[in-house]
Specification:
Layout: H1 2-5, H2 24-34, H3 40-48, H4 50-55, H5 57-70, H6 72-77, H7 86-104, H8 110-123, H9 135-155, H10 160-191, E1 196-202, H11 205-210, E2 214-219, H12 225-235, H13 240-243, E3 244-249, E4 264-269, E5 276-279, E6 282-283, E7 299-303
Parallel strand pairs: 1-7
Antiparallel strand pairs: 1-2, 3-4, 5-6, 5-7
Helix pairs in contact: 2-8, 2-10, 3-10, 5-7, 8-10, 9-10, 10-12
The structure holds protoporphyrin IX containing FE.
Length: 307
């Protein structure tokens, strides 16, 4: 009798809402507008100085690494206190030349935004060499690029008005880039924050999208599944669209809530063929939802529809 009255665990669905996810691409686009980098006159002025900047780009790249190798903290970050590692130096110069070419071309694309976000992640010791480059040194390098650009533009005697608009544009554009790298750096640091670890295992096309099969996420003892997923999906913003749709929520009963400050962006799982999230083998939709506590060593698995 009791058996037949028992509630089917599959019939109860738990809350699976996620808030607090940053959207680096949205911020990149908004900052472009905020900084006036959507103004055609500014972009044209910057591009009219691009050729000037290309003339000295190679020397600048070489000089930049000589400088980083000569300054105690940056030399130590790069492991060049005693001497420069030739292979690593070549690698770094190649990356910098690639970056410089894209920057001099005033690349404002979403793809460049993602590239810079990923560079910030690599700076947090998440790259193949696991080198940690704290953001002040990256900011300093950006400031030196700004100074170099201003000096070169004035040196080559561009029209004063054009030079003023272009230098202002370059300054804003490089600040935008600095912010984008910082955003990547911060999400990577959060993934490493906490004394305990859980593992997020990826299946299906997520592996190719994330470029990995699993990810270690650090947590604190009172963290919930939502806390770990927030860190994970902030680190991999492109994976979100597979799982979630965005809704907006206002504080309950607050008739004076304003859109810009009080409404919260809430990520809720897609309906229909949905990806499944399992915690230690149990689908969280029917077992505890996102607000359940986590424990060291827990395995979170993200499965494609139908698997
Ligand atoms: C203008 C400022 C900077 C920009 C735009 C920048 C950008 C980047 C990019 C795009 C990458 C990824 C390269 C790739 O694999 O394609 C990268 C990696 C790296 N950057 Fe920077 N960076 C800057 C400043 C610095 C500074 C000042 C340092 C060191 C003092 C540094 C150290 C590194 C290291 C070590 C890596 C590779 C990490 C690894 O492979 O483990 N960066 N950076």
């Amino acid at each position: 009798m009791l058996e037949s009255l028992a509630v089917n665990p599959q019939s109860r669905e738990f809350s699976m809402e996620l808030t607090g996810l940053e959207d680096p691409l949205h911020m990149w686009r908004r900052l472009i507008v905020y900084l006036g980098l959507d103004d055609e006159d500014v972009i044209v002025a910057m591009r009219r100085t691009s050729e000037t900047l290309l003339r000295d780009a190679a020397d600048f790249v070489v000089g930049a690494y000589d400088y980083l190798a000569s300054f105690d903290e940056t030399a130590s970050i790069l492991g060049w206190e005693q001497e420069m590692d030739a292979a690593h130096l070549e690698e770094r110069r190649q990356f910098f030349a690639t970056w410089m070419a894209r920057a001099i071309g005033v690349d404002l694309s979403d793809e460049f935004a993602a590239y810079l976000f990923d560079a910030g992640i690599l700076h947090a010791a998440h790259g193949p060499r696991a080198i940690h480059t704290p953001p002040q040194w990256v900011m300093g390098a950006i400031a030196m690029v700004q100074a170099h650009i201003a000096e070169r533009i004035l040196h080559y005697g561009h029209d004063r008005e054009l030079a003023a608009i272009a230098i202002g544009g370059w300054d804003k554009y490089l600040m935008l880039q600095n912010y984008q790298m910082l955003a990547g750096y911060q999400v990577a640091r959060k993934v490493d924050d906490g004394p305990l670890t859980v593992t997020v295992k990826l299946y299906g096309k997520l592996q190719a999208m994330a470029g990995r099969e699993e990810q270690t996420v650090h947590i604190h003892s009172d963290d919930t599944l939502a806390d770990a997923l927030r860190k994970f999906f902030n680190y991999h913003p492109v994976l979100r669209q597979e799982f979630f749709v965005v809704t907006w929520s206002a504080p309950e009963g607050d008739v004076e809530a304003t859109w810009s400050t009080d409404f919260k962006k809430v990520y809720v799982p897609r309906q229909g063929p949905y990806w499944r999230i399992l915690l230690n083998g149990k689908e969280v939709r029917y077992h505890g939802g996102f607000e359940q506590p986590l424990h060291a060593g827990d395995i979170i698995a993200l499965f494609p529809p139908g698997r």
